[in-house]
Amino acid sequence: MVKTFDELREAVKKSPKVKVAVAAAEDMDVVNVSSQCPELADFIFIGDGKKIEALFKEAGKKINGDIVDLSDHAQAAAKAVEMVKSGKAQNLMKGLLHSGIFLKAILNKETGLNKGRLISQISVFEKPDGFQLLTDCAMNIKPELDEKKQIIENAVELARALGVETPRVAVLAAVEVVNPEMQATVDAAMLTVMAQRGQIKNCVVDGPLAFDNAVDLDAAKHKGIGGPVAGKADILVVPNLEVGNMLSKSLVFWSKKKVAAAMMGVGLPIIFTSRSESVENKILTVALASYLALNVQ
Known about the structure:
This protein is an alpha/beta fold and about 300 residues long. The protein has eleven helices and eleven strands.
């Protein structure tokens, strides 16, 4: 079980090194990330070869991987996906291209990677006793009940890969009681019952819970909320993307929390971070993706 980002990086360093195919690698952040974490992964730079070489020269860094010269972004994304499918790379990374182009290559029914599962994003933070998973912050705009079920299942798969055998899942809402006027509370209650009946496996689900009593035991006790999840949640499931995105970015930019991001549901790790993410957090995402490549089937 790994409980901190330092432990995660050490676990990856001791494991066989994976290869990362970077789509549209003509990006200074890609240069900096790949140059600062050679112990975490090897990189294949797919993109405009001359621009990639110029960026490494500008940064004063040695090119530490193969370059595949493809200046068209759609072709670069398709090539990166192809390399992963063929086993030439184990991870896929988004470089300097639009998210839509990147995802189109991944989701292509004939040549892509999706296996018919819902794809969801998970932000991973440290907490005193392990990792805190927050989902979905980037992919599913307004998930319905079954989509929330799949979002939970994806997060549970990640939590178990990190060593949490039976993760505690808090389904968040603004209040802790079911209010028919607030769909998030209704969904949370239904997901709780679904887990109790075995429709969601390998975890304990409770909701609706507000953020404070999901993560803070004293706050939960103050409101008289008990149970195995309140104040001790490993996974936080937000009602919609807007809540997840703002909460995740608040933790990063206001609270200065380190974060790694995971994309689950594709069948392999994808390094897909915000353009405004720091190089340090992008490196943590590489570490997480490398770890998952070795620990998730």
